[in-house]
Amino acid sequence: MEVISVRDDIRAALAGGHPIVALESSVIAHGLPAPVNLSVAHSLEQVVREAGAIPATIGVVEGRIRVGLEPDEIERLGTSDDVLKCAAGDLGWAVARGADGATTVSATVFAAASAGIDVVATGGIGGVHRGDAGDVSADLPTLAQYPVAVVAAGAKSILDLPRTLEALETLSVPVVGLRTRQFPAFYARSSGLALDKYAEEPKDIARFCLIRWHQLAQQGGVLVACPCPEEQALEPAEVEEATTRALRDAAAQGVSGKPLTPWLLAAVTETLGPRTIAANHALLLNNARVGAGVASALRQLSTARDH
Ligand code: PSU
Ligand code: MN
User: Fold this and answer.
1) Which CA distances in Å does 180 have to 71, 87, 153, 192, 197?
2) How many Å apart are CA 211 and CA 233, to the nearest integer?
3) What are the φ/ψ torsions at residue 206 (nearest 5 degrees)?
4) CATH classification of the domain holding 205
5) Catalytic pick from 45, 73, 85, 156?
């Protein structure tokens, strides 16, 4: 039995050159509270379909890495409290244990690339945490390793965003702003940090990806930075204030390592209320839609190139 199993319709879509968008499952299992997590998971898949692509939510069920979870499997990961948080380096362990696991961006990028999928949509990537703990998400080096376009509302606002951008530069991961010249800060539309790459349309991003991957044979990923939709976005100052408080509480309670990111997100939600969930939902949907646009443009341009 294959360790990485690709759902039949996705296998067919890959063979037929149809656009596919991979989605992570850590946001479902660990990032958002129940029961909104399952409705978000469902609406993400729906948005990808409406935008003309096929959604492949990725996760681990009983030790099998599934590229394209079935609805009942998504429900299982979203309701059980015995789901491992799997970064790329944890996947083999989940397989060996026959465990259930939800994939972070790094594990999702790895599994997507293994299956031949070149677009991943998420909320915000992990990055360099604030403070001196040396906590750096595996999302960063993994993004540098595989030819995948990751669509995100920047990096999560709980992070040290200047250091995160610097780390991406060091790793040669280009960050392209889609209709923005500033690095988005997850719930907030801007971090105040300038981006030097601007794209007006998903097809401009697709063209850049193809040049990078095929003409230059550079294997690393591309981060597509899309700000949270205006209507649901939060103000940078209020997010910053809630984050400062959350970080202080996390330090006081000794929270660190893997639980830190979900803990901080939950603490910020507690302070700012349901608006954070609305913002998170809105930016996830927006990124999924943009991901479908990039995936479609990649397929169109590849076909044009091959003929
Ligand atoms: N985006 C969200 N909520 C989340 C995450 C992203 O809106 O919970 C998850 C992603 O799966 C990301 C992970 O890869 O948080 C980063 O965790 P860490 O900092 O432990 O690497
Ligand atoms: Mn970490």
Assistant:
1) 34, 29, 11, 11, 9
2) 33
3) -60, -40
4) 3.40.1790.10
5) 156
The reply to whether 169 belongs to the active site is no
pLDDT for 100 equals 98
Give the domain extent around 148: 4-306
Instruction: Give the pLDDT score at 25.
Output: 98
What ligand 1 atom has the least distance to the C-alpha of 102?
11
| Residues near ligand 1 (Cβ within 6 A) | 24, 26-27, 30-31, 87, 104-105, 122-124, 126, 137-139, 258, 261-262, 265, 280
Please say if the pLDDT value at position 306 is more than 80. no
Q: For 119-135, what is the mean pLDDT? A: 95
Ligand closest to the CA atom of residue 164: 1
Determine which residue's CA is closest to atom 5 belonging to ligand 1: 27
The predicted-structure confidence for 279-292, as pLDDT tens digits, reads as follows 999 999 999 999 99
User: Could you give the number of structural domains in the chain?
Assistant: 1
